[in-house]
Amino acid sequence: MSLALGLALAGCASANGAQPFSDAPIGNPGADAHQFSDAPARQLDAFEFHDARPLDAFVFEDARPLDAFEFRDAAPPPDACVPVITELLANPAFDLTPVGTDWQATPIDPAYPLITNGAIAAQSPAYYAWMGGITGDDEGELTVTDLLYQDVVVPTATTQLVVTGYYAVGTQETDPVVYDTGTFDLTKTDGTPIENVLSLSNLTTTSTWVAFSHTFTTDLSGQTVRVRMTTTNDEINSTGFLFDTLALKATHCD
Q1: What is the pTM of this model?
Q2: How distant, in Å, are the alpha carbons of 131, 200, 253 from that of 236?
Q3: What's residue 65's pLDDT?
Q4: β-strand pairing of 83-87 with 239-253
């Protein structure tokens, strides 16, 4: 296996007094009119009548705001969403032992496991996924393919699903032509594509680990999906595709 990769780390109403009607003839404002206006009973009755209603109204109106305040202060509905973020991948940095835990791999050559170390410094020590790096000629084939994947269940009521990680590419190819390819995809478990995350080739070489992030636009709540990395090399001049420190995080209701 060979890999050419040069990397550097990188109120109340108005209280006007009621005026009694005058029984005196108009134009004769004499003693009779004076005596009528001094009658206290009519004025007292009017005062007592008008004063009673504002008191009753005050007591009645004061009760409702208290009831309304107690209602608004009640607890929120029990089915309200409380957002949480969950990591869906098991062994997302490839560092658990035994090596390769929780990942399914179909390598070009079983003698060269896909989760390994040694070619370069890992982005998060000690292991990473090293795919490609073998030519068709090495195996007596025109093309050779590596496959690495993991199936995960997306929680119900997921509002956002984001994958992040790092990749690096090194090649022996010299022509400005795509000969070797690598992809990072989200698919159904039968392989049907959902969304592509990365499309790499011998023309996308790097000098260090490169971070990537992708927010999925497809509603995948409650579905089982596959995180899949695939690489293919042709007959000669191999290209290596490396992946490390992955994460697949779902934001959903608790």
Answers
A1: 0.70
A2: 16, 18, 50
A3: 54
A4: antiparallel
